[in-house]
Amino acid sequence: MDTAAVEVTDLVKSYGSTTAVAGLSFTAPRGAVTALLGPNGAGKTSTIEICEGFRQADSGTVRVLGLDPITDARALKPRVGVMLQAGGVPTGARAGEWLRLMAAFHADPLPPQELMERLGLVSVARTPFRRLSGGQQQRLSLAAAVIGRPELVFLDEPTAGLDPQARMATWELVTELRTAGVGVVLTTHYMEEAERLADRVVIIDHGRVVADGGTDELTGADQELRFRAAPGIDSASLLSALPAGCRVEEFPGGHYVVTCADPQALGPGLLATVTTWCAAQGILPEDLRVQRRSLEDVFLELTGRDLRES
Amino acid sequence: MIDPASRTSSVSFAPAPGAAPLPRMVLAQAGMELRVLLRNGEQLLLTMVIPVLLLVGFSMTSLIDIGGGSRVDFLAPGVIALAVMSTAFTGQAIGTGFERRYGVLKRLGATPLSRFGLLGAKTLAVLAVQVVQITLLSAVALTLGWSPRGGLTGALACALVILLATAAFSSLALLMAGTLRAEATLAAANLVYVVLLGLGGVVFPIDRYPDAVRPFLEALPITALADGLRSVLTEGAGLPLAPLLVLAVWAVAGSLLASRLFRWE
Predict the structure, then answer these.
(1) Which residue of B has its CA nearest to A141?
(2) What positions does the domain ABC transmembrane type-2 occupy (chain B) (predicted)?
(3) Most-buried pick from B15, B28, B124, B232 (CB within 10 A)?
């Protein structure tokens, strides 16, 4: 049990002349949530599908629960749950019968009825897959991924296209899986999702890992002070009021961010300085708050601001 | 959409993985395949409605010249052959093509059910539908005055011909579904159904075609199946060796090609 849930080393995968994965390495611990975070086309799905045994790597090694996803497929399949990005269910199959079929493939499955209750699928148990809403289809696929009581689940964009309520339900389920000791590897391009769910975040761009660590490690201890005011306030004047080593940045829409090289500088004193300066200028700073750098900031810094696609 | 009370239910996700025994997996999958097949209206049109209409329509009218003898005695084996083909080839090619397109085969590939198990389940579902078809068509034909010959040994000979034909048609269906796009499979499989319905001695006697094309027609799996059934049921012959040989060649060639060329995605 001392091997990692997933261990990927120097993974390379090309399709024709397109390199999808270009020497990617990461480790996902057991019983923890690992998020592969990146813009569309970063190589997340290729990576997860190689881990699932659907695709063969061009080079590099992949170990899932210490085993090879292709040569040890027979031993791995009962132990690993899979949720594809889309589809995977016959259009004419009813939600309930599909889940019962998935249960029949396992020795000691979760009771399908209880799982459907848990995921709010009871009312559509007799509805064919093609008539389910996008969110219901996603939840059915999620249910099918966990029904065999796996040790590890791979979820490829589990909340893409879900409404906020359904997304919250999925997050709760993932958290519960983790509490029960199930390892979760998921892909997402929602920063918030990675930040909320993951113990470990692997940021991928252009088929490479650009950052890898716990969410705390990635966002660091750096704090920043943010507020909103009319665009075009006199930043230079504000800066002159602040201690040395601080910076003031203005973003579109009148968003202002104050950061300091010395973490100690960003304290109650700085907050007082900023509000005093604002008062003197007759400016009301709205949404004023001191916060840690968000994963979104890290993500955008690493992958470039022009790469956001969703 | 989500009942808030449901969130408190006590499903335990503690890992307890393990595969079910193979027979249970295969039976469960076969049951799913069968239910999806029987619920699909277009499939039922091909597998049940058209064969019954052909049988009734051509038995009760003289629209086609079968060259003497009882009309229903000639037509029943041909229509049964068509029904067998419609399920093993047309229905299976279209169904599997769309399963591949919608990622169903891929998803099943991530379950403990092996490819061998999936093939077994598909075969069981096809055979189950054929039992329903043959029962239905036989009942209709008997009502129309069909008097099949051959007795029990004849029935066994027919079962052998049908099993071998099912193997041949299934391998060709999977070859098509596993290599072409789903839409192309849909079009091609329906075209093949119509063409073979016309050429394969199903309702039009094959001796009406020019001598030059007859060897080609006789090499078709549908002709071998229809001729094989007709020689036993209509003429009271023993085991139809030539049709069995033709079907065996198709089954072996189709299986070899399908196992080489089939792509799961």
Answers:
(1) B107
(2) 42-265
(3) B232
Cα R_g (chain A), whole angstroms: 23
Residues in chain A with pLDDT values less than 70: 1-2, 220-221, 301, 303-310
CB neighbour list of residue A159: distance below 8 Å, 6 or more residues apart: A138, A166, A167, A170, A171, A188, A190, A193
On whether both A104 and A170 belong to a single domain, the answer is yes
Q: How far apart are CA B191 and CA A301, in angstroms?
A: 56
List all residues 6 or more positions away from B116 whose beta carbon is below 8 Å from its beta carbon: none
Query: Residue A84 is nearest to which of B36, B107, B113, comparing CB atoms?
Result: B107
pLDDT at A259: 84
Same domain, A141 and A277: no
Query: Hey, of A65, A101, A129, which one would you mutate to test binding to chain B, going by the most B CBs within 10 A of its CB?
Result: A101
Residue A305 is assigned to a structural domain of this protein: no
Q: Which domain holds residue A288?
A: 223-292
Please give the ipTM for the structure prediction: 0.86
What digits encode the pLDDT tens for the residues A208-263?
998 888 877 777 667 788 899 988 899 889 999 998 888 898 888 888 988 888 87
Chain-chain contact of B19 with A106 (C-beta, under 8 angstroms)? yes
Same domain, A188 and A208: yes
Phi and psi (nearest 5°) for B174? -70, -35
**B119 Cα distance to chain centroid:** 14
- pTM for this structure? 0.84
The answer to whether residues A153 and A246 belong to one domain is no
Nearest one of B82, B173, B181 to B133, comparing CA atoms:
B82
